[in-house]
Each structure stands twice: as C-alpha cells, then as structure tokens.
Amino acid sequence: MSSKEVKAALKSARDAIRNKEYKEALKHCKAVLKQDKNNYNAWVFIGLAAAELEQPDQAKGAYKKAVDLEPNQLLAWQGLANLYEKTSQIDVKAELADVYEKLLELYESGDKQKWCDVCNKLVELYQQEKKYLEVAETWQKLIQKKQEEAVEKAELHQLWKKMIHLLKDNTQDQDNKTEQLLLAAFEHALDSADTIPGEDHQSLYKDFIQCLSKFPYETARLEKACNDMMALYPTVTYPLEVLCLHFVQSGTLSEEALHCFSRLSEMEASSGPGIIGCGIKCLQEKKYKEAVKSLTEGLQKTDQCPPAWYYLAEAQMKIHKHRDTVLSCNQALEALETPEGHSYRWKNRILQLKAEALIKIGDADAAEEAVKALDQIVDASSNPVVLAIRGQAYLNKGLVDQASKISQELLLSHPDLSESHALEGFINYFQKSYEQAERSFLNAIERKAETAEYHQYLGLTYWFMSDETKKDKGKALTQFLKAAKLDSYLGSVFYYLGNYYRDIAGDKSRARGCYRKAFELDETDEESGTAAVDLSVELGDMGAALSILNEVTEKGRTGTAKWAWLHRGLYYLRTGQPSKAVADLQAALRTDPKDANCWESLGEAYLSRGSYSTALKSFRKASELNPALVYSVYKAAAVEQILGKYEDAIATYQQILETTEEYVPALKG
C-alpha cells in the first residue's frame, strides 16, 4: 500500500466514523496498520471507533499506542479523556487526572478557553477524590492564567470566592499547605471585593474569621482579622464574639482580653461569649458566686466551649459545690469531643479538677470515679500534684497501704512540695496518729501557708488530739479562724467554729452565728442547720429558728430535708398548731418512713387535732417499728380508751405492765 493509498484509507475511515459505520472504519484502519503499524491517525481512529462500539479496552489500548507514538499530539489525549469520562470505573480516575494534566500542558500556549475547561474538569475530579491540595494548586493556576490575561477585578474576585467554596467545608481533612492557600484565597477575595464596606464583603469576612478560628496555630492572623473587621464594621458583634471566645480558649486572660469582654457586654448585653467573659473576670477577681452566675448564663447561649465549662467548674470548686463541679467537668469533657472542641490541651486540667472535686465528696464511689479520671491524664505518673490527688483517692477508698506508698515516694522525690506533706497528714489523721498529723500539716503550711484546707485539718487534728489542744485557743481555734479567713466559702470550718464556741467557749450566740454561716454556705449540711435551729430555740429566738426552717422547707423537694420538716412539725406541736404539725411530720416521714419517733410525734399531732383513729394508727406504727417505745404503746391504749374500745385498751395496758411493772400511766389507765 502506497502512501497515497494510506491517505485514502484514512480518509475512508474518517468518513465511516462520521457516518457512524464504526466496523467499516476499523477495517480501513487495520489495513493501514498492516502497511504502517506506527500510524498515529490509524490508532486514534481505532480508539474512537472501538469506544463507539463499546469496546473500552480496545479503545484504551489504541489511544495509548497513539500517545506513545506522538506524546505531544492532542487527538489521542482528547480521545482518552472522552473515554475515561464516560466510564464509571474508579481505577481510571487517577489516569484521567494524568490525561487532564497533559492536556493542560498541550493547551498552555494555544486554546485558552479549552485550557480553562480542562482546568475546571481537573479541579472537579480532585474534589471528588478529596485531594484538596491538588484542588487548591490547580485552581490557583487558573487564577494566575486569568491574571496574565488582565481580566476584570470582578472576575478575579469570583474566582477567589470559588476557590474558597471548594475548600472551606473540608478544613479538617487538609494539610498545612492547603490551609495556607485557602486563607490566602480569603485575603485576595476580601481585597478584590467591589464594595468595601458592603454586605457581601461583611459576609465574606465572617466566613474568613470562622475559618481562621478552626486553625489553632493561626492566632495572630485571627486576632488581626477580627480587629480589622471591627474597624470596618464597628456595630457588628460577630468578630468581637469570636475574639472573646479565642481569648477564653487560649487561657491567657490579658488586659486586651478583659477589654474585649467589657466592650462586647456594652455592645450586646445578651451575648453568650460576653457573659462568659464577665464570668471569667469575676473569677479572677475572686467574686466566685457572681462568676458561677455569669458563666452558667453564658453557657446556656454558647455551650460548646470546653474552657468556659472548666472556668465554671473552677468557680464552683471555690465555693465548694463539689457535685456541681463534677457535672461541669463532664460537660467540658463532652464539649472537647466535638469538632469545635479544637484540642485536648484542656483535658488534663479538667480531669484533675474533676478528681479533686470527687475526693471532696468523700465517699468510696466518688473516690473510684476520681481514680478513673486520673487514669485518663496524660503523663499523670510524672506529675507529683496528680500523684498526691491519687493518694487521697486511695485513702478515701480505704486503701491506706497504697496511699502510704505514694506518700513515701513523694516525700523522697519532692520534699519541698506542700502536697507531699499534706497527703502524709491526711493519712496520719485518718489513722488517728494526731501527733504525726500535726507535724505533717505544719510542714505543708510552711510550704504553702495560704491553703485553708491545711489549717482546717491542723485545727481538727488539735480538736481530736486531746482536751488540752481542743480547749487551747492557740491550737484548734486559731487554725479554724485562719482557715475561715483564707476561705470564707469553706462551710465545714464554720461548723467546727460553732462546735468550739458552743462546747468549749459556751458562747451560744456566736456559735449560732457560725452554724448559720455554715448552713448558708452548704444547705445540705443538716448538722449545721439543726444546730442553728436548736440554739435559736435555746436563746428564745423562735423567729430565727422558723426563718431557717421555712427557708429549707420552701426549697426542699418532696422526700428531702427531713430534719427541717421534723423540727418545724415539733415546733407547731409545741405551740398548739396541730394541723400544721401533721403536714410537716408527714413530709418528714416521706423522707424516712421508718422513723419510729417521727410516727410517735405524728400520733401526738393527730391526737391534739382530735383525729383519734389516725392517731391510733400512728402510735401503733411507731411501736411496730420500735417495740421499746413504751410511750407509743401507752398512747395507743389511751386512744383506744377514748374511742370506747375498753377491752383493747385493757389488753394494751396489760401488755405494757408485763414488761414494765411499775409504769404508772399504764396502771392508771
């Protein structure tokens, strides 16, 4: 076949393809290849015809042969691109990307529109494959090409916005280089906006700041972006809210941070980050109750902020709301698990605070939970303070040997640490080795004199050591007073001061004040509440006693605060108000239905009210729960007598006399 015949055959093949006679085209091409096996056009036509005949493997092989023969010719590459675009096979995606890259190279100096079309297709392919760096780099090439063509600023602006759209929703899957390209796109888009300031520009700035806030290492850029946006849009609170949350997250509460908190509160009093900021400021200023109030309110509006939950827990810990502290720590840990949680640099601090709170709760279950929290702290074994907390947890579980082992190790490795000596003191106090405990707590105070707990425990050590140290003003009393001065929220120390003034100094009025203070600080402290009420009664101040009881019963839910219901019920019984007494004593029994004495008092209340049948049932219930309550048995007999049940009354009186022969009321009955 001559070259003239080859050309004719190729023309016939082209015509056959145009007429959709693909098998005919293949015949002509094969004839050409017999003569010239390296004929580029013949291989391209075979690829095209085979593709139309749905023979993809033959088409692919033909195009690849053509590409090998003439790598810088367009036709075969275009054919491969068309072939790969039509197939749904995953394995050709990578090859398609290579084909597009080659087409970009071939179109570089020629058809600009086709170069842009292929570039768009390549970006879309990379987006599907989640190859975000390639997306960014390819789109940037497109923008550079447009810049070389000196296109309008508005068109460039739209291209930068498209790049942002391609990348901004997948920041968690991107490497640093891709992140930098995305942030650069934001900056270019902001600079190229038509109207500054303007609605679209403002929205774009907001997206930029939101994006920056996801990158923990872009703090300087975030601060600059927020400040720049505030300068352009002084009435918009968003950048200030982000900046406030950034300062909260960073844990560095500088003058600038405090200024931001104040400014946001002035602009938008109901802003969650602003209220959180005010709460943190209160915490710094040791206004702990105000801090708890503000942080709680702020977190109702902005709850996915682990550091804010931590600061709330810290404020609650300062006022000794230990169970609340644990709940807030759990919220902080939960927030850390969300994408907005950012990082785990707060996790150790939260877990440590949670463990400390659980230890203050004091029971074995809480101690077990504290150990679990400590187990999650990274590098806990190398932190002596965390080890001391673990020692206290073991002590609360009753594992004295394990606590002692930690104590001995800490005293050897960290003899200058107050916690090392305090742990030894707690162990000695637990074992009632008061002289050793005194030495340990004095050593702890020498190293950290401002810790109220050390003074409180030294005071307790003196209280239980001997009558002399209990009564010595320079011992127990002095340490309790120091503890109260260092921590005015430490309710338990005011309880012990009350004990001192009541039992040692004989100053009932001052004792009542201390008990009242202890109860105000901790409304679950029944001993302090009861003591304050009892002393008020002894001092003839029933108004003060009722004030405490009314406060507790108003706040108390059904089945709680038994002591308050019982005390008020007895007061009403003594003062001739039996109906009120019945209601309160019933409330007390809902808390503890097996209290025989309470049933006896309820029987008296019913009897005073004239409800004889219910009085009889109450007295019988009291004697069932405690057969030793002779008075209840006697009162049951007396009520039976009132009701005319004489035989029953006689039997009950005889029952009493069988065990207590000289019980005069029964003989009289």
Protein model, in words:
Pfam families: TPR_16, TPR_19. One of its GO terms (cellular component) is Ski complex. TPR repeats lie at residues 40-73, 562-595, 596-629. This is TTC37 protein. With 669 residues, the chain is mainly α. Helix content is 77%, strand content 0%.
Question: Notable features of this structure?
Answer:
669 residues, mainly alpha, 38 helices
**What structural category arises from helix and sheet content?**
mainly alpha
Q: How widely separated are the two ends?
A: 144 Å
Number of distinct helices: 38
Fraction of residues in helices?
A: over 70%
Beta-strand proportion: under 5%
The rough form would be described as: elongated
Q: What would the average pLDDT be, to the nearest integer?
A: 87
Using only C-alpha atoms, the radius of gyration works out to: 42 Å
Number of strands: 0
The unreliable regions are none
Present the secondary structure layout.
Blueprint: H1 3-18, H2 22-35, H3 40-52, H4 56-69, H5 74-86, H6 93-107, H7 112-128, H8 132-148, H9 153-167, H10 176-191, H11 199-212, H12 219-232, H13 238-250, H14 255-267, H15 272-284, H16 288-301, H17 306-318, H18 322-336, H19 347-361, H20 364-375, H21 384-396, H22 400-413, H23 418-430, H24 434-447, H25 452-465, H26 467-471, H27 473-486, H28 491-504, H29 508-521, H30 526-538, H31 542-555, H32 562-574, H33 578-591, H34 596-609, H35 612-625, H36 630-642, H37 646-659, H38 664-668
InterPro entries: Ski3/TTC37, TPR-like_helical_dom_sf, TPR_rpt
Protein name: TTC37 protein
Organism: Geococcyx californianus
